[in-house]
């Protein structure tokens, strides 16, 4: 791809090629009209030259916009390297790493060593700020997504770059169960991520029973149809997760309750001291400081008490969810064979109960 000489002046783009400045036409000679339509290659060359001009003037945002247009039309090594170098200036590290790595991989033998060294220098600098993932789906042709963004199949052969932190990796393909992995990437790290897709079981479709469509605003209903066979092996991981969260919620409620009781005792002591000295909380008054301390303690008691009630409700709901997940197949197995043969669903309904002096969850089920 040919570029303008201006780019080879101050701060040249990494892969700009010096072809000499074109001679402008005489002023009296009108410019020829632009063709009605140009090829994608010609359009990419024009955007590439616009990017080079903006690069030479350090207009990084304009250079990025022009190079992106060229990249959309022509994914070539020179566009990738120049756009990647612009991304360095804009500190968009994930895209920088992907573009510069592509530029080095696809550079032709005719590329000058100085050009390669320049791009490698920026790539090495960028790799210290990102994590590199080598994604390995077990099934060929699987669709791979990183944080919801689909990865091009051609890019899976090389490293996929992410910013430091936690990332969700998903691989999916029709006829297989979705593979889901969560990884944590550190700056400058590199890791392999295996994504194992297991064939999905083939189950015959079952017609929904009449009258089972929930109305808007109704309670949450979990329905197991007639094709749910009791005794089918299920993973207990959801039950462990729900149970652990329930224990944490109840533990938090206990801790908040203990703290609330201690604070209430402190408030009683302050109140008793004020009364014993014959004072009262009026404004203005001689007991302003103790009264402020008492009001603050009472506020903390209310806040801690409310937090404890919310924690207990959440812990109880999570515990019931874990129990329902474990016991539901057993309860379903006790239903009559006639009911299951007729395809009638077994609903499980739950709703929270909150009041001034009570908190809990109501669960209704039929089997």
What is the element layout, followed by pairings?
Layout: H1 40-56, H2 60-73, H3 77-90, H4 93-105, H5 113-127, E1 131-137, E2 143-146, E3 149-150, E4 160-162, E5 165-172, E6 179-185, E7 190-195, E8 220-224, H6 237-276, H7 288-333, H8 337-341, E9 346-354, E10 359-365
Parallel strand pairs: 1-7
Antiparallel strand pairs: 1-4, 2-3, 2-5, 5-6, 8-9, 9-10
Helix pairs in contact: 1-2, 2-3, 3-4, 4-5, 6-7
Number of domains: 3
How is the quaternary structure best described?
Answer: single chain
Largest sheet: 4 strands, antiparallel
Q: Strand order, main sheet: write it out.
A: 3-2-5-6
Structural class from helices and strands? alpha+beta
Strand fraction: 15-25%
Shape: flat
The percentage helix is: 40-55%
Tell how many strands the DSSP assignment holds.
Answer: 10
Order of helices and strands: HHHHHEEEEEEEEHHHEE
Query: What does the radius of gyration come to?
Result: 34 Å
Question: Helical region count?
Answer: 8
Low-confidence stretches: 1-12, 17-31, 217-231, 335-343
Termini separation comes to 72 Å
The averaged pLDDT comes out at 76
């Amino acid at each position: 791809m040919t570029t303008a000489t201006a780019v080879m002046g101050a701060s040249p783009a990494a892969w700009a090629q010096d072809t000499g400045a074109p001679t402008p036409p005489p002023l009296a000679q009108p410019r020829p009209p632009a063709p009605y339509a140009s090829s994608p290659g010609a359009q990419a060359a024009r955007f590439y030259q616009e990017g080079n001009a903006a690069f030479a003037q350090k207009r990084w945002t304009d250079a990025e916009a022009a190079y992106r247009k060229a990249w959309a039309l022509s994914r070539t090594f020179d566009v990738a390297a120049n756009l990647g170098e612009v991304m360095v200036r804009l500190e968009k590290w994930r895209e920088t790493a992907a573009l510069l790595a592509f530029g080095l991989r696809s550079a032709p033998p005719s590329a000058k060593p100085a050009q390669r060294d320049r791009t490698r220098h920026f790539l090495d600098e960028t790799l210290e700020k990102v994590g590199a993932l080598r994604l390995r789906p077990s099934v060929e042709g699987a669709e791979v997504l990183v944080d919801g963004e689909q990865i091009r199949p051609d890019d899976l052969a090389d490293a996929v770059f992410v910013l430091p932190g936690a990332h969700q990796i998903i691989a999916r393909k029709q006829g297989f169960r979705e593979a889901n992995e969560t990884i944590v990437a550190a700056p400058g790290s590199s890791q392999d991520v295996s994504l194992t897709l297991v064939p999905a079981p083939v189950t015959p479709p079952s017609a929904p029973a009449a009258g089972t469509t929930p109305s808007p605003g109704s309670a949450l209903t979990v329905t197991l149809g007639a094709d749910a066979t009791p005794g089918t092996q299920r993973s207990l991981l959801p039950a462990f997760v729900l149970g652990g969260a329930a224990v944490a919620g109840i533990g938090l409620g206990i801790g908040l309750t203990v703290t609330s009781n201690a604070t209430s005792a402190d408030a009683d002591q302050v109140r008793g001291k004020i009364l014993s000295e014959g004072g009262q909380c009026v404004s203005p008054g001689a007991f302003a400081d103790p009264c402020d301390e008492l009001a603050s303690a009472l506020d903390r008691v209310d806040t801690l008490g409310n937090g404890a009630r919310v924690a207990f409700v959440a812990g109880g709901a999570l515990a019931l969810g874990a129990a329902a997940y474990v016991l539901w197949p057993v309860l379903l197995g006790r239903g009559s064979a006639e009911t299951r043969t007729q395809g009638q669903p077994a609903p499980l309904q739950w709703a929270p109960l909150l009041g001034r002096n009570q908190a809990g969850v109501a669960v209704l089920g039929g089997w």
